[in-house]
Amino acid sequence: MQPLRRSLCGAALLAAAGVRAVPAEPPERRVALVIGNSAYRVGPLKNPTADAQAMAQALRALSFDVSLVQDAPLRELIESFRRFSMDSRGAAVRLIFYAGHGLQVKGRNYLLPVDSEIRAEDEVPAKSADLNELLERLGALPQGINIVILDACRNNPFSGAEILGPDGRRLKFRGATPAGLAPVEAPLGSMVAFSTAPGGVALDNPKEPHSLYTKHLLGVLQTPGLPIEMVFKQVRLSVARETGRVQVPWESSSLTGDFCFKPGPGGGCAVVR
């Protein structure tokens, strides 16, 4: 009881002297939406759900409040983006990680739900999630920073020759859709990170649990004090080296302040050597 009595006496003395105890500032609110789509009806992938699970675990360890969505059909995919943009309005840091199929049509980028069954290019906007629209919505929020990470530039499963649909029908995607995703300009206060350069194709990695990009991102994410720009630079160098420069990650950034996923010993962003 002695330590408690001493503590109460100290508080009483401070109150008598007119000194108010200042409560510690709450930590910045970090929120993340993590999506992994593997079980596609057409063009299934091995890595995305495992990538998403590992990213969700890593982000929770970095004080993010994480919503994990796996193998989302169209309605769930659209609703998860809508709900996140509403619920994260007051957050200091908003992060979206998406692993799965993505494609571009007429300069706009679309993320594909697992129930996609697209037969023509003009069906894409109605049967997928518009990435550009999501970025515009996040960029309109008056405070906080946005980080969007896309391990989503795999081969377009609906392009080229005929493919066999889930019900045995032969489907052919009409339209000369370019490979990969189109370049984007990150809204003010945002960074958009792609697993490969615009128009390029990222590699699924069936012999390992994670894609090449996510594997290297997980490896560097926990480095204390490493600024976000250096995080993705290290990932780019590692992926380019492992693929012989076949896959070179790329970012678009308009961040105006410093951010590190894991603060350094002094609490800020400074590389610890």
Explain this structure.
There is one protein chain. With 273 residues, the protein is an alpha/beta fold. It is 28% helix and 19% strand. It is built from six helices and eleven strands. The protein has a six-stranded mixed sheet with strand order 2-1-3-7-10-11, with helices on both faces. It is globular. It starts with a helix and ends in a 20-residue tail after the last strand. The model is unreliable at 1-15, 19-26 and 161-176 (pLDDT under 50).
Set out the fold topology:
Layout: H1 2-16, E1 30-36, H2 48-61, E2 64-70, H3 74-87, E3 93-99, E4 102-105, E5 108-111, E6 129-130, H4 131-139, E7 145-151, E8 163-164, E9 170-171, E10 190-194, H5 212-220, H6 228-242, E11 250-253
Parallel strand pairs: 1-2, 1-3, 3-7, 7-10
Antiparallel strand pairs: 4-5, 5-6, 8-9, 10-11
